[in-house]
Design goal:
heterodimer, A: mainly alpha, 80% helix, B: alpha/beta, six-stranded mixed β-sheet, four-stranded antiparallel β-sheet, 10 helices, 36% helix, globular
Chain lengths: 257, 314
């Protein structure tokens, strides 16, 4: 891994962000407005439904943080494809690993502050972690890992299928969240869906978020399983991505992007 | 300076798409000597871009060997920092300024910060970008975009520059100025230049040697004078007909003329008499609007080669 080339890509992304400042708004707009909508719902909920509303609010914070981390990684790749500048980037000798690593670094630099803003907004509506800082931090770490794994999978798909599939950058998370049992326990789903849900990267992070919001104890198994599944996503997605990148060089996809 | 800057040996590349197989390169071999300007000519789809993509590490060939400045490209040892690449169709992120682009690519190649600032300023001045250095790429004129691409290509003081259609889309004034830059770079810095272009005048002016690629194969190579003399021995004989002179093209085709709109071109061999040819035209009922006789140009050569390869490959 050549740190100079990685730094070049991160600096380039930051420079583009500085030149198009409204992109910061784009990163914040949907996540913040979504959290406000559910924050208002929590505030307006009847007394006996407040706990449920706060659980929904907590999941939304994590969901939107995941969206920010994953979509920013993939949107940086899309920027290169849409502007046609990827050839110039690759002709610096940037490797597939350096390319994705730089996008992940930039996405984390952007999404961590977005996550902090979301937490602050949710706190304004009554969300609290009830002193469960370690469980909350672990849940954030699981969500981050899972988002990275998903982003790398999308990148692999785009380098395999072509830039027509760049829409996956902002659509893919929806299906994964839907199958991750966001607002209920996986046991509440039909049996086959429960199995699918167990294999989803956000299931345990969302479960922890709901428990933290309710001030209920978090079992260690949830965190361990969360790390294991999210880690498996990252471990599986990286070789797939590197294979897709290498194949794109062979099939000519890289030259056509 | 002597030696080989680019060595391509027996390179083949086949693309497969939706059941269709395209042989983009079929056993291509060529050498580009250090310090020369070498032009790769050929019609669209001949394999030029495929070859450039292989040289720049964007594409992997099915077989063969490629060495650039002594580095084995296929083994992943392309010396990127010693190679500059500029294309007339190069695209950078639209919001980055000319200075941003040169500066950022200097970072990519590990140019130290203090040196970077000095080098960016020097290149901006050298390529006439001072007035637009802080203008976003999307707001630059075509000529300024090409100058930016050239300045970026020079950020590491490279030994080899690959120029892909460097004057495409430029007005004549802009194209002349870019050509002048290319010639100056080669003359003053001794940089090897590998060029592709569809502007034969440009190639004639700049290149010491050319290779003609058609159907994925190099079918001819040598200096412009050599290849023209080999393919079109004798003088060129051009019959200009009036627009809409129906039937003229068909008749002229029978006499071996190649058609470029109202201009019909063939070579007048040393054993042929112009009088006989004029009589043949008269017998065909062709009434030329004008007749030009001269030495065949590289453009005549290009058209001849394209037509020959088309006839050969159907």
């Amino acid at each position: 891994m050549n740190m100079g080339r990685l730094l070049f890509l991160v600096r380039r992304d930051l420079k583009i962000l500085r030149r198009v400042k409204w992109r910061v708004m784009e990163m914040l707009y949907f996540p913040v407005t979504t959290v406000i909508i559910w924050g208002l719902f929590a505030r307006a909920a009847p007394r006996d439904a407040v706990a449920v509303a706060l659980a929904i609010l907590a999941v939304n914070v994590f969901w939107n943080f995941a969206y920010a981390a994953q979509s920013t990684t993939n949107m940086q790749i899309n920027e290169d494809l849409w502007s046609g500048s990827i050839r110039q980037v690759l002709m610096t000798g940037v490797t597939g690993g350096e390319y994705i690593a730089a996008r992940i670094v930039f996405a984390l630099m952007m999404s961590v502050p977005v996550g902090a803003v979301l937490m602050a907004v949710a706190w304004g509506f009554g969300f609290t972690v009830h002193g469960m800082y370690l469980a909350s931090a672990a849940s954030i770490a699981i969500t981050t890992l899972a988002s990275v794994g998903l982003a790398v999978l999308v990148a692999a798909a785009v380098f395999t299928l072509g830039k027509e599939y760049s829409f996956l950058a902002w659509t893919v998370i929806q299906i994964f969240v839907m199958l991750s049992a966001p607002f209920y326990a996986p046991e509440a789903l039909p049996a086959w869906m429960e199995y699918v849900s167990r294999a989803m990267p956000f299931t345990d992070a969302f479960a922890v978020a709901r428990l933290v919001a309710a001030g209920a104890p978090v079992e260690g198994i949830l965190l361990r399983r969360g790390f294991l599944v999210a880690g498996l996503y990252v471990a599986a997605s990286m070789p797939l991505y590197l294979l897709a990148f290498r194949r794109a060089r062979v099939t000519g996809m890289l030259a056509r992007l | 300076m002597s030696g080989i800057a680019v060595r391509v040996r027996d390179v083949s590349k086949r693309f497969r798409s939706r059941g269709e197989t395209i042989d983009a390169l079929k056993g291509v071999s060529l050498d580009v000597e250090r310090g020369e300007i070498f032009a790769l000519l050929g019609p669209n789809g001949a394999g030029k871009s495929t070859l450039l993509n292989i040289l720049m590490g964007i594409l992997v060939p099915d077989s063969g060997g490629v060495e650039v400045l002594g580095g084995d490209v296929l083994a992943g040892r392309t010396p990127f920092a010693r190679i500059g690449y500029a294309s007339g169709e190069a695209r950078f992120h639209p919001v980055l300024t000319a200075a941003d682009i040169v500066n950022l690519y200097a970072t990519a190649f590990g140019v130290p910060r203090a040196e970077r600032r000095r080098r960016v300023d020097a290149l901006i001045a050298e390529f006439g970008l001072a007035r637009c250095r802080d203008r976003q790429y999307m707001l630059l004129s075509s000529g300024e975009k090409m100058r930016t691409a050239l300045a970026k290509a020079f950020v590491t003081d490279p030994e080899l520059i690959v120029l892909d259609e460097p004057t495409i889309g430029l007005d004549p004034d802009g194209a002349i100025s870019i050509r002048r830059e290319i010639a100056r770079i080669n003359r003053e810095k001794g940089v090897t230049i590998l060029l592709t272009s569809h502007y034969m005048r440009e190639v004639e002016q700049l290149a010491r040697r050319i290779a003609f690629i058609a159907g994925g194969e190099i079918v001819d190579r040598g200096s412009a004078g050599e290849v023209i003399a080999r393919a079109l021995p004798g003088r060129s004989f051009v019959v200009v007909t009036r627009a809409g002179a129906a039937g003229a093209a068909e008749g002229l085709g029978g006499l071996g003329f190649e058609h470029r709109g109202e201009r019909h071109v063939r070579t007048l061999r040393s054993d042929e008499s112009m009088g006989d040819l004029m009589r043949a035209l008269s017998d065909l009922g062709v009434r030329p609007h004008d007749i030009e006789v001269g030495q065949p140009s590289l453009e005549d050569y290009f058209v001849h080669m394209v037509e020959s390869s088309r006839n050969e490959h159907g």
